[in-house]
Amino acid sequence: MGITVIGAGLAGCEAAWQALQRNIPVTLVEMKPWRMSPAHHSPGFAELVCSNSLRSDRLENAVGLMKEEMRRLNSLIMKAADASRVPAGGALAVDRESFSAYITDALRSHPLCTVVEQEMTQIPEDGITVVATGPLTSDALCEAISKLPGVSTLSFYDAAAPIVTADSLNMDRVFRASRYGRGDDYLNCPMTEEEYNRFIDALLDAETAPVHGFEETRVFEGCMPIESMARRGRMVPAFGPMKPVGLTDPRTGREPFACLQLRQDDAANTLYNLVGFQTRLKFPEQKRVFGLIPGLENAEFARYGVMHRNTFLQSPGFLSPVYEALNRPGLFFAGQMTGVEGYVESASSGLVAGLNAARRVLGEEPLVFPEETALGAMGAYVARSNRNFQPMNITFGLMPPIQARVRDKKKRYQMVSERALQALDQWISDSRG
Q: Which pLDDT band, with edges at 50, 70 and 90, does 214 fall under?
């Protein structure tokens, strides 16, 4: 007896891998390349449709802690990320093509993994199943999920930032540096106050692409389009993705008024992502408006920014802390559709679901991770009663506070991470009997 995993995104691939590591046969069902969603372009597994960054890799950051927990549990996603890393300061960014290829090869070549390329329109009635079809789940499968007892669904709108070619940048205006002197992994486009105001004026007047059913209030805060930020106030971008803090323009020796950062997007150093510039501007408008930013005057766009609807479950009351349906043992969900937000969080839910789906096959009860760990805290958030449930990144605020009073925030977070890793190591030891 094996398990069926529906969807070969980050969560589905991680779920499949965890089961395979426990010698459980896996049938991995993926509709690509037979059918592509609006956000997908590659036939490979675990396609990164938005940024190429998996965010901070430091233990004093909650997502950095989550990555380390996943590494200790032999995560395929983390193996691929570490193998395809590109420079990004204190963050873990990857060459998206190498990242996807690593994961695709690991699963397609595994002797216990059978890949089926087809669209699933129904959830299997029997057996152990992990549904990890992502926030762009097809309408037919969404309808099937909506008929499950206790299910209600919600949605918000997600946006991706543009990517430009490195050789099209004006390096006379761009300088290389990370904030606060932490290396030189980013390219920076500094702006004077006059240049910033000219850009904001153009941004506010630019024509946006229509999105069916779009509502400004339903945009997820973590992926707010740059034009939506500007509508909230002219200086909002300058205090957000365009903040100049920690950067010094070598041409002037001073901190610029505002600054756009570009992050390397591939291992060959030929593509750069506009950090924090998710957008739904029409493609010609993106070229015109973003071309007003110093350094991007003649930028060539390898990919324009896009926006799409994301769907997620009202998970509290429907899922347990291991992402299993309360009313149907053996049916697991994973990824952004559960209400976790972010690449790492999505993969982590796949890890927890896949591990426990394997336990169900073996006739064992699921194992809940301690809430002191990032993995456990994320699962608890998804399962805990919440009247205004919204997609959530992992934060230390989801984890029980430490008892000691420590004023230094960095030291306090380090202590939380140390406690988490100790709890995880003990959990691993106990789970192995």
A: very low
